Amino acid sequence: MPSDGHPHPVATYRVQFTPEFGFAQAAERVGYWWGLGISHVYCSPYLQSAPGSTSGYDVTSHDTVNTELGGAEGLARFLAALARRRLGQVLDIVPNHMYIGGGHNRLWMDVLAHGRASRYAGYFDINWNPPEDKLAGRVLLPVLGEAFGQVVQAGQVRLERTEGQYLVRYFDHVAPAAPESLGAILARAAEQAGSEELAYLAEALAALPAEPEHAARRARAWRVLHGWLGRLLAERPEAAEALDRAIERVNEEPALMVELLDRQHYRLAHWRTAGREVNYRRFFEINELAGLCIQDDAVFAQSHRLIFGWLGAGQLDGLRVDHIDGLRDPQRYLDRLRREAPHAWLLVEKILAPDETIPPSWPVAGTTGYDFLNLVGGLFVDGQAEDALTRTYAEFTGESPDWPAVVRAGKQRMVDQSFGGEIDRLTELLVNLAQDYPRHRDYARTELRQALAALVASFGVYRTYIRPDEGWASATDTRRVEAALAEAAGRFGQLDPALWGFLGGLLRVELRGPAETEFVLRFQQLTGPVMAKGVEDTAFYRYHRLVSLNEVGGDPGRFGTELAEFHQWCVRTARRHPFTMLATSTHDTKRGEDARLRIHLLSEMPEQWARQLGQWSRRADRYRRAGLPDRNAEYLLYQTLVGTWPIGMDRLWPYLRKAVREAKVHTAWTRVDEAYEDALRRFAEGLLNDGPFREAVGAFTDRIRPTARLHSLAQTLLHCTAPGVPDFYQGAELWNETLVDPDNRHAVDYARCEQALRSADGCGPESLMERLEDGAAKVYVIRRALIVRRRCRHAFGPSAQYEPLAARGEKAGHVVAFRRNGGVIVVAPRLLWRLGGDWADTALDLPEGAWRDVLNERTHQGAVPMAELLAPMPVALLVREE
User: Fold this and answer.
1) What is the pairing mode between strands 59-65 and 863-865?
2) Which of 12, 43, 631, 754 has the largest CB neighbor count within 10 A?
3) SS3 readout for 4-70
4) For the whole model, what pTM was predicted?
5) pLDDT tens per residue across span 757-807
6) Tens digit of pLDDT for each residue in 346-357?
7) What are the φ/ψ torsions at residue 722 (nearest 5 degrees)?
8) Rounded-to-integer distance, Cα 482 and Cα 479, Å
9) For the chain, what is the radius of gyration of the CA atoms?
C-alpha cells in the first residue's frame, strides 16, 4: 500500500505482453496511456516463460527477462519510456507455480534427471512417497496419448543423444535420462568398442548416490563424469559410434526401452492418469504447471531476486500477486513480501464470496477488483425480473434453475475426476493421523477418502486461512468449516458422525501436532482449485439463466445489486482499502464489460425477451439435427449474440466449443464428442448465414444497444470514482464486447484508441453523444474523470470519505449518487430501459455552493432535476467551485 512519500496511484492500464506486443511496442504507447490519464502501467508477467506465451503465467525461469518480449535490453528501454512520462509500473508475479513442459525449465529437468537427489527437488511440491508403490521416488509424467505398452511397442518413445544431452523423447515431450540409467548402455558400448574408459564410466554412473542427503555430492560427481564422457566421445569416434549403436538398439527393442524407463526418476503414463495419480501439486488441473514450495527460503529468494532488484531501483512501484490462495501459507508469504518491499503497492488476485473480505492481517492494499466488477455490474440488473427469467430459462431448456445444486455437481465432478492424486495425498495423511487417535483408527481408507472428497467439495469459499502451527483459526474460518462439515455430512449421512467430528477437530485446530499441521495446510491448498474448476470452469458453463452474471468472482444465484449494498461496500472500502484495485474487465473475465451490460438489459425486458427467444428458436429449428444441439447450449448461444452482435463464426465457434467442453455434459476437453460438437457448429453456422435470422438479431440488438451504451458510461464513471484505483484492461477504454480468452487477448487497435482520445479532447459532449458508436464518449468520461482524480487528490486519497447521496422523486431508485470527501459529487443512472426516458419529478438536492459538471460543462446549484443534470452526457461529475 502506498506510504508517505510514495505517489498515490490514479489509475492503472493492464497490458498483456505477447511475442507480437513486447517491450518495444509498449514503449511506443506510453504517450497514449499518459494522455488517457493513467498513472501506472500494469504489466502481465514478463519473466521468461514458455515459447509463444500470451499470458506470462507459464514461467520457466525467474532469472531471465522474457527474450521473446525483448529481454533485459528491451525492458530497460520500456522503463526509460515510462520514466520520461513519469508513469509508474505494477508487475504481475507468479509465486505459486512454474511451467514444466517442453524441456524449457532447467530446474524441473534437473529434478527429472536426479529425482530426490536433485538440488532442486525441494523447489517443487512433489509427493515422493505416494500410496502407489510404482510411483515411490518417482514423478508421474502423464503425457502419453495411448497406454504405455502401446507407445513403447510402437517405438514412439526414443532415447536421444544430442549436444551432450541424453533425452527420452515422446514427440514434443522430452525428459532427461537419469545418469545411472545410462550405465548399462555405456557398458554395452564399451564391450563393442573394447573401451576400458567407457566401461569405467559405466561403473561410475551406476554408483552415483541416489539419497537426497547426497544431492550436492551427486551433482558434483555427475558434472565430472559428464565432462569426461563428452571429451572421450569427442576424442574417440569409435566410442561415439559404439554408444550410438547401443542407443539405437534400445530404441529398436521394446524390452530394453522398458528396462531403461523403469530406471528413471519419473514414470511415463497415459494423460488420463493425471486426474487419479499425479503426485505433484499443479496449478488447478494443468499438468504443465507444477506447484512451487515458495515457503522455502531458497525458493523464495531465487524466484524474487529480479523483482526485488527492480523494486529497490525504483523501477517498479507495485506487485499483483497471482493466485494467492494457492500458496501454503498466504499470510507468511505476504508478510515476507512486505518486509522485502516495505513501500510497494501490493495487491492480491483473490476471489471473494459475497459475504467475504480479505483477512485484515494481510499487509496489502486490496484485491485486483473482481468483487467490485460484480458489485457495480449488478446495479444494471433488474432484481424484479428474477422470477420471470428463472421461469423462462427452466421452460426453454428443461434445466434445473437450482444454482446451488449445479455448483455441488460441478465441484463433486472435479473432485472425482480431476483431483484424485491430491485427494489420495490427503487421504494418506489422514490414514496415518487416524492411527494416533484410538477412536478413529478403525476407519477404512475408502471411508476417509469419501469423507475428504465430500468435505473439499462442500466449502462455500475458495479456502480458509487457518494457522495450525500456531493453533489459530478465526471465528469466520471456523464458521466456514462448520458449514462445510454440515453440508458434507448431510450428503453422506451413511458415514460415522464421529468421522466428521474428527475432521472438524483437525480443521478447528483442536487436534495439534506436526502431522496435523501438514494435513490442514494441504487441505486448504486444495479447496481453491476445486472451487475454481468446479464453479468457474464447470458450473458457469452449465447454468445460463442470465449468463452475464456468470463472471469471475460472481454468484449467478444473486440477481443484481441493491443501491444500499453498493453504498455499504463503498463506505467500507474507503475506510479499509482505499487503494484496492477496481476492475470491470480483465484478462480472465468471461465477457467484456460492454457485452455483459448488453445481456444485463434482458433483465429489464423479461416478457419481450421470452417472446424474442421463441421467435428465434422457431426459426432455428430448421438447423437442428437429431435433437442437437441441446436447449441449454442454444440458450447460451442467443444470449451470446445479444452481447456481441455483430459477430462471425471466427469468434463465435471457438467460444461455443470452449463453453460446451468446459460444461462437461455432452462433450469435454478430455472426451470430445465430435458428433455433438459438429451438430452445434452446423447449428450456429446455419443461423449466422440465415438472412431473416440475422435481420431479427440485428433489429433486436439495435434497439437495446443505445441503452447499453448509456449504462456503460454510467458504469465507467462509477469505476473511475468509487473508492479504490480504477484499472482499465487493454482496449476496454473503447466498447469492449469480447468473450473469454482467447477472444479477449486479441491485439488492441491503438490507432483507433488514439483517434478516440483526440476526439474526446476536441469535441463537446453533444457531439460525442451524437456519434456514440465510435467509443470516444467512453474515453471522454475516463479522461475527464481521471483529470479530476489527479487534481482533487483529497477526494480520492487514503483518508477520503464516501458519502451516499439520495435522489428524491418517483424514479429515485434509478440514481446512483455519492460525494467524495465533500468536494466531488458523482451521479449515474441505472436501469434506463425500465425508466423509459422519463425522470418525472426526480431531482437531486446539491449541497450548498456552486458545482461545476466537468462532463456536461454546466454549473448547478440547489435542487437539480435529473433530466437537466444528466444531459447531454447521461452522467455527471460535479466539482465544487471555490
Assistant:
1) unpaired
2) 12
3) CCCCCCCCEEEECCCCCCCHHHHHHCHHHHHHHCCCEEEECCCEEECCCCCCCCCEEEEEEECHHHC
4) 0.95
5) 999 988 999 999 999 999 999 999 999 999 999 999 999 999 999 999 999
6) 999 999 998 899
7) -70, 160
8) 5
9) 30
